[in-house]
Request: fold
Amino acid sequence: MNKQTIITVLFALVALAVEGQEIKMNETSFSDYLPLLNAKGYMAYSFDVSAIKGKNVTFNVREFVNGKEVEDSPRLLFPYCFQANGDKLVIGFLPSEKDSLALCCHSWENTLSFTSSLKLKQIYWESENKHIYSYVSKPFELTTPLEKDTFIPLVCYCSFWYDAEDKVTRCCGDNYIKPDLSSDILKYVPHYYVLGIQFF
Reply:
């Protein structure tokens, strides 16, 4: 095999290798839109609640300021006790027209769906000399056994805090909150809500 033939074969192999590395467009799926929805303030958590199907249930929320539960907490998010008829519960958050309110949607399969609001508190961003509303939601670890008449925490909606050392606002740390509220992140969060259910 002469030199010219070897060079031709090498060019052909390189061309084939490059051709195999081309970028192709995929068909867009619903999951591709999730990062866009999350960036705009939409977040949803889905729970399998088949274990308490047929039970009487209430939606509760507990509010905490500087690590202490406020006086009128817990309170009902939905004013009535209801019988759960579905296997799935979705708790979600959506953008509000007011910075001082968060909108929270509850949807229990084959049972009910409603939206409630949570009052938010500002934090002072010292290095920027401004007050802001900034919150994030985090699910709870679902490790405790289900017990009748006991509050079951599902989602934590927590405020950012100001980090004076780095001169930024943040809410980083645990991806899942411990049911006993011992997660490190909650030591810094000035204001948060615990959303959950209770069955009878």
In short: The chain has two helices and 15 strands. The longest strand covers residues 56-65. The longest helix spans residues 3-19. The CA atoms of residues 91 and 106 lie 5 Å apart.
